[in-house]
Description:
Layout: E1 2-7, H1 15-30, E2 33-37, H2 40-45, E3 51-53, E4 82-83, E5 89-90, H3 93-102, E6 107-112, H4 114-127, E7 130-135, H5 151-172, E8 174-180, H6 187-195, E9 200-202, H7 210-222, E10 228-233, H8 258-270, E11 273-278, H9 290-309, E12 314-319, E13 322-327, H10 328-331, H11 343-350
Parallel strand pairs: 1-2, 1-6, 6-7, 7-12, 8-10, 8-11, 9-10
Antiparallel strand pairs: 2-3, 4-5, 12-13
Helix pairs in contact: 1-9, 3-4, 5-6, 6-11, 7-8
This protein binds 6-O-phosphono-beta-D-fructofuranose.
Amino acid sequence: MRLGVLTSGGDCAGLNAVLRAVVHRAIEGYGWEVVGIEQGTRGLMERPPRAREMGLDIFDGTLMRQGGTILGTTNKGDPFAYPMADGTLKDRSEEVIEGLRLLRVDALIGIGGDGSQAILRRLAQQGGFGLVTIPKTIDNDVAETEFAVGYDTAVSVATEALDRLQPTAASHNRVMILEVMGRDAGHIALVSGIAGGADVILIPEIPWNMGCIARRIEQVRGQGRNFALVVVAEAIKTEEGETVIQSAPGEKQRYGGVGHYIGERIAEETGAEVRVTVLGHIQRGGTPSARDRLIAAAFGVHAVDLVAEGKFDRMVAWRARQVIDVPIADAISRPHLVDPDGPVARTARGLGICLGDR
Length: 358
Ligand code: F6P
């Protein structure tokens, strides 16, 4: 068996820990060869395909602690509609499949979010190769799994940011806004907001109104507190129902900046002095948390075992303290969003946190 492995989509902490687990299990458990594909599917379009042999010697004891991915990755360039230099879109899927053949890959483990997994699944069906996927994304929006690799670290980073913002907010009597990532899901905002003592948390799953936010800030003042912390998920909409994006023309839509909009609105409504922090890619970098390392290890080992059993078209998943596997089709059929009436949102409301709607 010659096993291919690639990372795809936006990077996050814990990817190298997954690679460590995959390579160890494949080589020590089964005696296979492992080839690491560089730059995701884009590396498979190059000739020769961009790849490296992965042996146990690449693990010097530091890799699983490192953020990023040693293989590199890409979050643009769908091979079925690849943007060409002349502005056209080209189907380059056969080149990617051919790249895998040139590398003599028998089966592939793809580490990615829902978008990457959907692309890899299409490629596997078209190319007739066995595929197992491992969910990773700081957004935690992949369905059928409680956790994706990278999410826990991102929540820790956002919580630490609130820990650092609180004393300066209190020293200056300010309202501090923290804008966090999460594309279309509010998991990072909600969980870090609870852990970091936010007074207001705004997430895309719950429509917000300024009256509710202003009331909560006044209430906090009335309780004798001179500062407030507000966490804003990057994908919430403005009062006019628009998303705030940063992308340059022709670029993929990229959120960023809605925290400034909310900050201005809060200053207008409450007269508070406001400062805004946009946390950005800091949430994706750095040393993975212990939980992310554990999930990465468990996912990597289970994914290799699935390949050994010939169980393909499956995604590994974490549910009720167990590693299981589910059809990739189910995992990509819908996003895993925050349930506005679920236990985490109820906990926030129980703490008096304003979620923007009441
Ligand atoms: O999906 C992961 C994510 O970090 C989102 O939270 C964020 O909106 C996006 O990727 C940023 O993408 P890029 O790395 O292209 O700026």
